[in-house]
Amino acid sequence: MADITDIRRPDDMERITTPELAKAFIDEQVALIKEQVGDKKVLLALSGGVDSSVVAAILIKAIGQQLVCVHVNHGLLRKGEPEQVIKVFRDELNANLIYVDATDRFLDKLAGVTDPEQKRKIIGGEFIEVFAEEARKLDGIEFLAQGTIWPDILESDAGIKAHHNAGGLPEDMNFELVEPVRILFKDEVRVVGKELGLPDNMVYRQPFPGPGLGVRCPGAITRDRLEAVRESDAILREEFEKNGLAGKVWQYFTVVPDFKSTGVKDGKRTFDWPCIIRAINTTDVMEVTVEHLSDELIDHLVNRIISEVPGINRVLFDYTPKPPATVEYE
Question: Using an 8 Å Cβ cutoff, are 74 and 106 in contact?
Answer without folding.
Answer: yes
